[in-house]
Amino acid sequence: MASIEMRNIVKKYGDGFPAVNDVSMDIADGEFMILVGPSGCGKSTLLRMIVGLEDITSGDMVIGGDRVNDKAPRERNLSMVFQNYALYPHLSVFENIAFPLRLAKAPEDEVKRKVTEASNVLELGEHLDRRPANLSGGQRQRVAMGRAIVRDADAFLFDEPLSNLDAKLRGQMRTEISRLQRRLGITTVYVTHDQTEAMTLGDRVCVLRKGVIQQVASPRELYEQPVNLFVAGFIGSPPMNFLPATVSGTTLATPFGPIELDASRADKVTGKDLVLVGVRPEYFEDASLVDETKKHVGTTFTAQVDVTEWLGDSQFAYIPYEAPAAVDAQLKELSRELDSDQLRTQAIVSIDSTSRIREGREAEFWLDARKIHVFDPESGDNLTRDAEAGAELTRMAAEDRTDQVAQARGEAS
Ligand SMILES: Nc1ncnc2c1ncn2[C@@H]1O[C@H](COP(=O)(O)OP(=O)(O)OP(=O)(O)O)[C@@H](O)[C@H]1O
Ligand SMILES: [Mg+2]
């Protein structure tokens, strides 16, 4: 098992385009790191440079304390699980798992011991004589992981391993991979463009945009204290709403009426004229369901509801609004970049499932002003980010992880 350190990693393909641009990050021994971002942002390229399948243009790749830039993939002792698991159809599950040991000409008793151990962890014991074709997608995935486990690899690397499974199986496999990784305590780097996978699997998540790291943090820090519009818009589903607003003193004038800022936030937006106010869907509520004693910490407004979607445990309401042309163009650009199909000039709000708000009518909503973030529309920076509160969230996640890894290794030995 090993840590992975990246120092100023750059990858330029033939045409000089920087697919990965000055990436530095430390992945701790036993940590589960996610690389996430829209298509083409450089996730696979970065992963392939860790394994050694792609040359590094400049920078240092350090694994377990050794610089590996010039080492061949097989000298790096890493295990990569691809999207298509590449199992051998004519071999049994046992022999598929044993494959790397056979290649290394390991003695029969060692092969038997290691395959048995791995198949126990993976709950594949009763399938060892079967062929891959007769297994479910999830079982096949586990066979591929078994092969990685018997190699005693220093780290697991996954490139979108679940992307060709159906939604239900994907959910199951997500839980399974998470459980296994905890149990084995093996350093893992996992590429996905699915933000749900990113949020549920990772100890930390690295958000990439056009080859550049935007933020590396625990899922909660990304969600609650995003550094910029891009991260704020990428993490969360449905995504954060961005309302155009003009600043006057401590008041933001938005399409949904004035929002009053507390002193510290007001300080941070002083001197700005036009801003974007980030409001997550769940910061809204049907005003008639909000306790009177709580109403003063937020803003109550009336709006025309376009569509409602009742989901059982909650419901969404879609509220269109007008945005100035400049902001509108910017929001469209952001949507395009995030591969999002959401129209940015309508707010998606999540309200209680018992709400009687219905589409096609006017309704009164409330939004919690304590939780909003204010963004600079030009740079995209989050002006009201509380870096300290964010760092604390990630520190807490790291503590949990260290405990879990210690516990898992204690149980394993
Ligand atoms: N062999 C190559 N030659 C030239 N350019 C490449 C090559 N492979 C990738 N690129 C470019 O590098 C950038 C990053 O590609 P990469 O495959 O790492 O993206 P990704 O984040 O994995 O995307 P996806 O989610 O679509 O898999 C893209 O702009 C891509 O066009
Ligand atoms: Mg890729």
How does this model look, in words?
- The chain is α+β, with helices and mostly antiparallel strands and 413 residues long.
- The chain has 2 domains: 221 residues, P-loop containing nucleotide triphosphate hydrolases (Rossmann fold, 3-Layer(aba) Sandwich), CATH 3.40.50; 148 residues, no CATH class.
- It has 11 helices and 21 strands.
- Strands 6-7-8-3-9-10 form a 6-stranded mixed beta sheet, sandwiched between helices.
- β7, α5 and β8 form a beta-alpha-beta unit.
- α2 crosses α3.
- It starts with a strand and ends with a helix.
- The mean pLDDT is 91.
- It binds adenosine-5'-triphosphate and magnesium ion.
CATH class identity of the largest domain:
Alpha Beta
- Largest sheet data: 6 strands, mixed
Count of distinct strands: 21
What number of domains?
2
Estimated share of beta-strand residues: 25-35%
CATH superfamily of the largest domain: P-loop containing nucleotide triphosphate hydrolases
CATH topology of the largest domain: Rossmann fold
Distance between the termini: 15 Å
Ligand species: adenosine-5'-triphosphate, magnesium ion
Corresponding CATH architecture of the largest domain: 3-Layer(aba) Sandwich
- Percentage of residues assigned to helices: 25-40%
Number of helices: 11
Name the poorly predicted regions: none
> What is the average per-residue confidence, as pLDDT, rounded to a whole number?
91
- Structural classification: alpha+beta
Q: From the alpha carbons, calculate the radius of gyration and give it in angstroms.
A: 24 Å
C-alpha geometry: elongated
Which sequence of strands runs across the widest sheet?
6-7-8-3-9-10
